[in-house]
Specification:
single chain, 171 residues, alpha/beta, 5-stranded mixed beta sheet, 6 helices, globular
C-alpha cells in the first residue's frame, strides 16, 4: 500500500501541485491513470462498475438491460468509452463448492463475445454471494425495494471489482 501511496503522491506532485523529488516510471503512471471495469452479467441485466485511477476503490457505474449479445457489448463499450480501461473483471458465478455451472458457462460465452466485439481483455473473479451481499447493504441503508432493483446489478459489479482489487498484492 505504501509504494502505491508514494507513487500517487509523486504523480500529484508532477501535475504541478508540488515540485516532485523523483517521478514514477511510465508503467506506474499508466497504472495510476488507467482504470479497471467490472461486469456482473445476468440474464436480464448487466451491472457495470469502474475503479478510480489509483485502483483502490470501485464505484457502481450503470446497468445495461439485456437485448442481444451485440447490442449489450456495444452498450457496455459505450459506457466505458470515457474511461481509460485497462481490463475488465467479470464476475464468475460458482456454486458453493466452487464449481462452474450453467450460469458460469453463459457468463464465459458473453465475455468471449465481449472480448471479440470490443477488443477489451476480460479476467474472471469469483462472484459467489455478491448480489446477496449488495442487497443486504442496500436494505441496511434503508433503500426502497424499487430503487434496490434499479441499482442491485451495478452494486454487485462494484463488489466484484472491489474483491478483485483487494486480492491484488500491493505494488
Amino acid at each position: 500500500m505504501l509504494p502505491a501511496l508514494l507513487a500517487s503522491l509523486l504523480w500529484f506532485a508532477s501535475e504541478g501541485a508540488v515540485a516532485p523529488i523523483s517521478s514514477p516510471g511510465p508503467r506506474a503512471l499508466h497504472r495510476m491513470r488507467s482504470r479497471l471495469a467490472a461486469l456482473d452479467v445476468g440474464d436480464k441485466r448487466i451491472g457495470v462498475a469502474v475503479s478510480e485511477g489509483l485502483r483502490l476503490t470501485a464505484q457502481p457505474l450503470g446497468t445495461v438491460e439485456r437485448r442481444s449479445l451485440a447490442a449489450d457489448c456495444a452498450a457496455i463499450d459505450t459506457m466505458l468509452a470515457s474511461y481509460e480501461i485497462e481490463k475488465v473483471i467479470a464476475g464468475l458465478p460458482l456454486n458453493l463448492r466452487g464449481e462452474e455451472g450453467e450460469q458460469a458457462d453463459r457468463v464465459r460465452h458473453f465475455c468471449a463475445r465481449f472480448e471479440k466485439e470490443t477488443g477489451r481483455q476480460v479476467e474472471f473473479q469469483d462472484e459467489r454471494l455478491t448480489t446477496a451481499q449488495g442487497d443486504r447493504m442496500l436494505i441496511e441503508s434503508g433503500m426502497r425495494r424499487k430503487r434496490r432493483r434499479e441499482v442491485r446489478d451495478r452494486v454487485a459489479a462494484a463488489l466484484i471489482l472491489q474483491s478483485w482489487l483487494d486480492a491484488q498484492p500491493a505494488s
